[in-house]
Amino acid sequence: MNAFIVELKNKPGELARATEAIAQKGINILGFTGATCGDSGTIVLLTNDESGTKRALGDAGYRPREVELVVARLAELNWKFESVNFMAPAATVDLFKETLLPRIKDKTVKQFRSFHLNDAAEQQDPTCKPVLGYGRSLLYLVSESFEGGVRTPLLGMEKYFDVEVAPLKLPNVKTWVAPGPATASTTHGGFDDDKRTMESIINLIKGRKP
Q1: Residue 110 belongs to what H/E stretch?
Q2: Which of 123, 164, 176, 188 has the highest Cβ tally under 10 A?
Q3: Average confidence (pLDDT) per 10 residues, the chain, 210 residues
């Protein structure tokens, strides 16, 4: 299973142009993340049609880089993982249930940890406002705007994690909500820049409490 890394210009409409190129081909986005720096930006896409996505982006003038997903590939090679740590993942719940959940249940992944915003913070995340004029988090944008008008549950959103994953009551699945004692992030893209989050993840990897 491969993901696509796409370089964009940081200007209004550029993200919509890239995703629309995929949508016009009837391709579904399963996972999404992105970041900007100065006048450029980068998005990472996971879709249900890898060859179609590559063609669609190429036809639209982009040069996507294709990379293999590490956990999926190494699990096929019978690797075991002490832990997998996600920060506000923009992956669909369906993708999680199809790919990672079976590995959590059979203990290929011994511990799964996820950090995400509480829903109130998602509703107030200003990240998309300057570029897209959108007043909520990037995950809300992906969930409600990139799926052909169908509201799609994403793993990194509290409102869906609590309904779709938490009720499974898996002993090796833990989650921490921001802002809180283990993470002080207040935006979707802020987790990897948050010192408290990074310290929590390092402690978890070392077998300590966050």
Answers
A1: none
A2: 188
A3: 83 83 86 72 84 91 81 71 91 88 92 96 87 82 74 93 96 96 93 94 91
The span from the CA of 177 to the CA of 133, in Å, is: 26
Residues 117 and 178: their CA atoms lie apart, in Å, by 5
How many beta carbons lie within 10 A of that of residue 194, not counting itself? Answer: 19
- For residue 32, give the nearest of 117, 92, 86, 102 by alpha carbon: 92
Burial code (b: 16+ CB inside 10 Å, e: under 16) for 32-66 equals: bbbebeeeebebbbbbeeeeebbebbeeeebebee
Residue 164 C-beta-side C-alpha neighbours within 13 Å: 17
Q: Can you name the residues that pair with 176 across neighbouring β-strands?
A: 115
3-state SS string for 145-163: HCCCCCCCCECCCHHHHHH
DSSP string, 6-23: EEEESSTTHHHHHHHHHH
pTM here?
A: 0.71
Please name every residue paired with 177 in a beta bridge, in sequence order, or none if there are none. Answer: 116
54's tokens: 């590559």
Nearest to 188 by CA among 95, 126, 135: 126
Any idea where the domains of the chain sit in the sequence? 1-68, 77-210
Q: Which CATH number applies to 1-68?
A: 3.30.2130.10
CA distance 163 to 192: 25
